[in-house]
Amino acid sequence: MNSISDSAAARRTIFFCVLAAVCEGIDLQAAGVAAGGIKAEFHPTENQLGNFFSASTFTLFIGALIGGRLADSIGRKTVLVGSIALFGLFSLLTPLAWDLPSLIGARLLTGLGLGGALPILIALVAESSREPRRHANVALAYSGNPMGGAIISLVLLLVASAHWRLIFVVGGVLPLLLAPVMAFAVRESASFRNPESLSATSPRAGSFAAILGGGRAVPTILLWVSFFLGLLTLNLFLSWLPTLLVGNGLTGAQSALAQIGFNVGGAMAAILIGIFLGGRLRALSLLVTFLALPLLLVALAHASRQLTVILALVFLMGCAVLAAQAFLYSMAPAVYPTSIRGVGVGAAVAIGRTGSIVGPKLGGYLKSAGHGYSQLLLDLLPIVIVASVCALALAWYTRRPGARA
Q1: What average pLDDT does this structure show over 138-160?
Q2: Domain limits for position 232
Q3: Of 79, 135, 372, 73, which Cα lies nearest the Cα of 270?
Q4: CATH no. for residue 93?
Q5: Backbone phi, psi, residue 303, to 5°
Q6: 333: nearest Cα among 137, 89, 144, 154
Q7: What whole-number distance in Å separates Cα of residue 174 and Cα of residue 19?
Q8: How confident is residue 349, by pLDDT bands cut at 50, 70 and 90?
Q9: Residue 138 near residue 333 (C-beta atoms within 8 A)
């Protein structure tokens, strides 16, 4: 009976973590989706718009580090529920903004909660899953992020861009409704319910120094570089793709449709790669994903302006970019033992979030320098190639006999 009860509690925990990831995806992509209405009302320069896109990702870095450290000390559940409530509350400040500085300030505060949520829910899902399903469950939880992006893009299709504030209202209300439910429904990680289960040789809980110790230096550095470059690329896409597509001849509704395709394709691919990581197709699925990234980038840069062609390529690009992210998120918990898993995953996500800061700013700089749609995409090619090589190296290293994975 206990095993049945434990299994049901684990499934419930994973389910609510997926919902939390959906809420985070809504808030993370709200800025890019609302950009058209914000430009019409506040008339920012390209650099100012880049600052707005990067605002929440700057404090995401801080939130991920602090949240991961606290999660190892006081428990995953407490910090996760608090982070969700925090980003919901601060997201509701964004519609009250009266000028660009107040808008950026609200996004800075929102990023603190956003930063703490994702690494903790990934660690909690990993610790609530049995070995055969661990990669698949972590990838499933991560897939909630792009699904949230698709939902908020759909909201834009249903309302005029002048009503951009509604996007942030949705992004605030949903997590505030979810947080109290999770406080009752989610089960704490087994390592905090049974602290005696930790090995006597485990690193001290929450130790930053231990991240690079015990043979973890190589996979940690590969994870950091992959996360940094991968999230740089992803957040540049999420922030600037609607604007770039409109500049390339699409209407606002068509660009929103492309954004939905990017996210839906990414969510589907994230779930699939999670399944493949636990089976015989692991190597092939990773090879296809990381080879497809640069090839699709070049194809998208040189694509004709036909709507069907652009929508198909954006959909496939979403598949590749978000499958790559799902791989990294599924690997991160496996690199670290339980006592430092929160801070290890949090540090990896924090390093990635610096890429999230750089990506939108880089897009703004390149746009200000006169780089158009095609040239800006091709500017990303060296970044995507290096990220793919590092991720494939991580995949190879963690499969070596004796490697910590």
Answers
A1: 80
A2: 2-189+206-397
A3: 135
A4: 1.20.1250.20
A5: -70, 150
A6: 137
A7: 10
A8: confident
A9: yes
